[in-house]
Amino acid sequence: MGDREKKSELFEQFARVGKALGSGKRLELIDLLSQGERTVESLATVAGLGLTTASAHLQTLKHAGLVTTRREGTRIHYQLAGDDVARLYSLVRTVAQTRLSDVELKRVAYLGRDEPEPGVHEAGEEITREELLARAAAGTVTVLDVRPWQEYQAAHIPGALSIPLEELSDRLSELPPGRDVVAYCRGAYCVLAYEAISLLRRSGRRATRLNEGMLEWRLAKLPVASEAAA
Predict the structure, then answer these.
(1) At 164, which CATH number?
(2) Looking at the 3D structure of the chain, how many domains does it have?
(3) Which stretches make up the HTH arsR-type domain (predicted)?
(4) Tell me, what CATH number does 54's domain have?
(5) Cross-strand pairs, 208
């Protein structure tokens, strides 16, 4: 039958990971770190947290073995401990989407439905990565990365053009004229690509979005490029 106390101790170790994931803000930090390494200050700013609070959440994730750190001068850089952490985070989202009806309500409230506006391009609102790979290979689309430059620099779809969302309205002229645009961002629950598509369509561009993002792209073991590698 085994030793009940020892079994309980073992399962308590498993629970350390579950407890670390039991915070929406910590899941958001994992989401950001799935794009690449970041400093505490950067994570706090993007996640809308105070520096002390962000540090406390990151220490919880570190104690559970989900993130690692490196020091550069006075700054601490955090990164996911491995691809298995990214897969676990992705699975948590999938289970929640499948099992909790409230998730879809909150998803629609946050992301919207991205319906084409009257008189603007009315193609499908999203395409799969298989479709994107085929169209990119044929040279019929411009692939647009609308994440912040730091995330593009860490890893992006090969050949993608980087124009962060906050710069897009001022940089539309950089997009090749007459070509469809496929925008992507961090993942399936990232709002940046939705907002980029809305902006592009209002400007008269033929645009759609990748139905996933860099998180899913990397988990699928598809090729990635980085500025460091370049």
Answers:
(1) 3.40.250.10
(2) 2
(3) 6-100
(4) 1.10.10.10
(5) 182
Query: What value, to the nearest 5°, has the Cα angle with vertex 97 and ends 152 and 25?
Result: 55
- In the block, tokens 């169209």 appear at 135
Residues 139 and 66 in one domain: no
- Residues tagged active-site: 185
How far does CA 5 lie from the centroid of its chain?
40
What range defines the domain where residue 80 resides?
Answer: 4-86
Q: What is the side-by-side strand order in the sheet with 126-127?
A: 126-127, 207-213, 180-185, 141-145, 161-162
Q: Give the span between the Cα atoms of 43 and 141, in whole angstroms.
A: 32
CB 159 within 8 A of CB 143: yes
CA distance 83 to 226: 17
**Does 91 fall in a domain?**
no
Return averaged pLDDT per consecutive 10 residues of the chain, 230 residues in all. Answer: 92 97 98 97 97 98 98 94 98 97 95 53 74 94 97 96 98 95 97 97 95 97 80
Burial 69-78 (b: 16+ CB within 10 A, else e): eeeeeeeeeb
Shared-domain flag, residues 211 and 122: yes
